[in-house]
Model the fold of this input.
Amino acid sequence: MPLATAVWTETDRMPSAPVQVAERARSLDRFLRGIERRALRIAELSTHHREDALELVQDAMLAFARSYADKPEDEWPPLFHRVLDSRILDFHRRSQVRRRWRVWFGRRADENEEDPLEQVADPGDPGPMLRMADGQTRAALEAALRALPLRQRQTFLLRIWEGLDVAQTAAAMGCSEGSVKTHLSRALAALRPRLEDLR
Amino acid sequence: MNERRHAAEPGDPTPSDARWAELACRVLDESADDLDAATLSRLHRARLAAIETSRTRRAAVWAWPALFAAAASLALAVLIWPAAQAPLDSTPDSVLAAGDLELLATDADLALYEDLEFYAWLDTQQSADG
Done:
């Protein structure tokens, strides 16, 4: 064997533990930096409040870093959304419990609570064309997305906006691939009349 | 729309839906890009905290083998030390045991040994009287 091939060079050596830790930290930073804004918007569309959304995203980042940072990087997107999706579901469960208690004790809803009437389609709505003319395309889109049931909205955002495939979306939402297809089909059917005239 | 968009699968938007779906993604992208400085700062801090959590955890994982090796070495030392000391301590014990056996074997002298303190006291009394 030639001596040159038998000698270990500096580049051949396995990276030391601190170097591996630092490289992993840099990868994690890149991943979280790339996903954090969209994650916040996804959470905000579900919670309707930025502060709540920030807390959910912060919590999801910590939990993801604690539990899944050692996984291969190509598995990170669905895993991160799995963590975030479970936090969003927990948030909705807690909100429902709070609402039930308020109804039970006959209390009036807080002033900052979402008005249920806002979830109902406005018969006097001028339609997407006029809203767009008013420069409210974003508001129209957000209103349409918020009007969707939670699972349909999550499916639309993960599948269409985040670009996860069916299997990854199913993994992120903890449901079957068939459920993903059903949710997406229903979401598109609900969004179509409200958004198809967007320009 | 995200660059990681996959090929069309069953249930995906139809070509007629694709136009408004792409526009919706573009509007959502813009909304994500337009976040205010305070929100971006909060996200930045959250990201740093998550990275620190991961770094600490990974450092701890790397430290476990070293800690285990140190603990194993210590345990080995604790187990080996008495065994190494045993031959050195056995010599005086065996000498003492032999002396005890000789003492026990001579019944006549046993009473003398049991009353040794009395004889010593008697000796001091006699010396004082003499």
About this structure: Residues 46 and 150 of chain A are 7 Å apart (CA to CA).
